[in-house]
Design brief:
CATH superfamily of the largest domain: Multidrug efflux transporter AcrB transmembrane domain
CATH architecture of the largest domain: Up-down Bundle
Structural class: alpha+beta
Number of helices: 12
Radius of gyration: 30 Å
CATH class of the largest domain: Mainly Alpha
Distance between the termini: 56 Å
Order of helices and strands: HHEHEEHHEHHHHHHEEH
Largest sheet: 4 strands, antiparallel
Strand content: 5-15%
CATH topology of the largest domain: Multidrug efflux transporter AcrB transmembrane fold
Number of domains: 2
Helix content: 55-70%
Length: about 375
């Protein structure tokens, strides 16, 4: 006997819980909005500007993230981010700090030898420390000396500077990419199904992005390009789940009347429940593997994706479908483009039919025996 994750005939009243789930969603969105002025939005150096320095210590050096963070902090650079590359015992690290901290390496604990101070002075007079102009290059050179003195010999593998102007442009481009993605999705849904389906999908996508970003703000986590990539991936993932449910809703709408719309929505969600659980479960397994085994470099992406998978699955069931129900109840009687899709070849809409680009249903279809309700009542009176 084949294994069935969701047994046939399963009927869970998802739509009946729409008011409770709407309250939960509104609460989460409000919590995220309230956290913005309290905690602030913590931007990474990709969006705010800063310095990224990759270093490799010699084999005999015993070092960890805490030791590096202590030395860097003693030099006046606070809130630095130190990430280890590779294995747990690796000696390669990525040091990141904000643009405002670049020129503040003046702490008394940054002890340098006379030879190092003389080398810094010569580099400064020649046009910038280590060939990099201004205080940024001087800061990198001084940090290199201080880390070597306090921890052990090292080599600077790579240094990257992101200015505040470039960070602002990246931040603006990132927001524009999210907006353009939502607009294109709106057009696709309207073309693929009907205009009444599109708002539910867009509301679900905005809901997913809002809650995911709100959780990041509440937890005080950084927004950088990795998180932006995760948000764009969440848009695609959530849309895919919504499309599957909407497609089944459209198929069932062609067979059942709008009077039973709540039952149609519940039936559609239950029919796609096994596929939803399997897709979400397998995707979550991969994301959790990245979260646990991928290291600090990929962890922000994995965290955002894990939140997005849960929220995206939730919104496809409890946000997109109830929104369609609301719009159908309020605007379902409005005239729609006359495009027949399942009544018969070449047949246009008859009396009592509502025809839409996505489905065609009959509200007052006569009884199967061909007699009208009025003739039945007259016959009953004569008896």
């Amino acid at each position: 006997m084949p294994f069935e994750l969701v047994p046939p005939g399963t009927h869970i009243d998802f739509i009946g819980k729409r008011r409770i789930t709407a309250a939960i969603s509104i609460t989460l969105l409000l919590a995220g909005a309230i956290a913005v002025p309290i905690n602030g939005v913590k931007l990474g150096i990709d969006f705010q500007g800063g310095t990224e320095m990759q270093v490799l210590f010699d084999d005999q050096v015993n070092v960890d993230e805490g030791a590096i963070r202590s030395v860097v902090g003693a030099c006046g650079i606070e809130d630095s981010s130190v990430v280890r590359y590779g294995e747990a015992a690796g000696r390669e690290f990525l040091i990141r700090f904000q643009a405002g901290a670049v020129a503040s390496v003046t702490g008394p604990s940054c002890a340098l030898t006379p030879e190092q101070e003389e080398a810094l002075e010569r580099a400064k007079l020649s046009g910038g420390g280590g060939g990099d102009e201004g205080e940024k290059g001087e800061t990198i050179d001084k940090l290199t000396y201080v880390l070597g003195n306090g921890i052990g010999p090292l080599q600077v593998q790579r240094v990257e500077f992101v200015g505040p102007r470039v960070g602002g442009e990246l931040r603006s481009d990132g927001l524009k990419s999210l907006l353009v993605a939502c607009i294109l999705i709106l057009i696709y849904i309207a073309f693929r199904f009907s205009t009444r389906f599109a708002p539910g999908a867009i509301i679900a996508l905005v809901h997913d992005i809002g809650i995911t970003a709100g959780i990041f703000v509440i937890l005080g986590m950084e927004f950088d390009l990795r998180v932006l990539a995760a948000l764009l991936a969440i848009l695609g993932y959530s849309l895919n789940d919504t499309i599957i449910i909407y497609d089944r809703i459209r198929e069932n709408m062609e067979l059942r009347t709008k009077v039973d719309l709540v039952d149609v929505l519940n039936q559609s969600v239950n029919q796609t429940l096994a596929r939803t659980v399997l897709t979400s479960g397998t995707t979550m397994a991969v994301v959790l593997a990245l979260w646990i085994l991928g290291g600090e470099v990929i962890r922000p992406f994995a965290v955002a994706m894990a939140i997005g998978i849960v929220v995206g699955t939730y919104s496809s069931v409890f946000i997109a479908s109830p929104t369609l129900l609301l719009l159908e109840r309020r605007f379902g009687g409005a005239p729609a483009p006359a495009v027949a899709t399942g009544i018969g070849a070449g047949a246009g809409p008859g009396a009592g039919e509502t025809t839409d680009a996505a489905f065609t249903v009959r509200h007052d279809a006569p009884p199967r025996d061909g007699r009208s309700n009025k003739s039945k009542r007259n016959k009953k009176k004569r008896r």
